[in-house]
Specification:
The chain is of the alpha/beta class and about 220 residues long. About 50% of the residues lie in helices and about 10% in strands. The protein has a 6-stranded parallel β-sheet with strand order 3-2-1-4-5-6, with helices on both faces. Helix 1 packs across helix 4. The longest helix is centred in the first third of the chain and has 18 residues. The protein is globular and about 55 Å long.
Length: about 220
């Protein structure tokens, strides 16, 4: 039966994409490059270093990329993490507690590096609700490769087929399918409903809908098995 739920972070649990886009624009400007929020948007949900390298027109290991990455993370800590639980989408905190109380095992698999993910989960008051938190620095290949999802399932000690992965981008859903997990999309994040619809039948417009869907999936698979 569905016993595990693995979540993306930005755009799924935390309403951070707008802030991320703004910070990318601001950091690029500090390094002499003018970009628009529309140009920054496609990089949201992807690893930070290569995203900034692309926006700045530099190599990932270029000193400018390294300095820009450090600057971005410092600004994120100062300007975004200070908002705490206000960063969460409606219903996230209570919904996760409901799932935990139902016996669901919870994990996070995110393109953030793990220290940044841990900081965000702690700042929003969610960290104690999750077991493993898998960041992009903990795998050899990031999303959409299945490695991140498979590691999360392994650390939960649950077979991938008994896990759902919940995310807001096509990259999330592709990873879920590659890992053998049930792909569940939220439509309030980065990618549009029409884009997500090509990759899953579960298209949910709120976090309470996520809770209801996971509860129903757990009950349905229990009956089928």
């Amino acid at each position: 039966m569905i016993r595990g739920a693995v979540f993306d972070l930005d755009g799924t649990l935390a309403n951070t994409p707008t802030a991320i886009s703004r910070l990318l624009v601001d950091v690029a400007a500090e390094f002499g490059v003018t970009i628009t929020p529309e140009q920054a948007a496609p990089t949201i949900g992807k690893p930070l270093e290569p995203s900034l390298a692309t926006l700045l027109g530099c190599a990932v290991d270029d000193p400018r990329t390294v300095r820009a990455t450090d600057r971005y993370r410092a600004l994120f800590d100062q300007e975004v993490l200070s908002q705490g639980a206000d960063l969460l989408f409606p219903g996230v905190s209570q919904g996760l507690r409901t799932l935990r109380n139902q016996g669901m095992h919870l994990a996070v698999a995110t393109s953030k590096i793990s220290p940044s993910a841990e900081k965000l989960l702690t700042a929003t008051g969610l960290r104690d609700l999750f077991g493993p938190v898998i960041g992009n620095d903990m795998v050899h290949r990031g999303k959409p490769d299945p490695e991140m999802g498979l590691r999360a399932a392994a650390e939960l000690n649950i077979a991938p087929r008994d896990c759902a992965y919940i995310g807001d981008t096509v990259t999330d859903l592709r990873m879920a399918r590659a890992a053998g997990m049930i792909p569940v999309a939220v439509t309030y994040g980065v990618d549009s409903l029409n884009t997500l619809a090509h990759h899953t039948q579960w298209l949910l417009s709120s976090f309470p809908d996520v809770v209801h869907t996971l509860t129903d999936l757990a009950a349905t698979t229990a009956r089928e098995r």
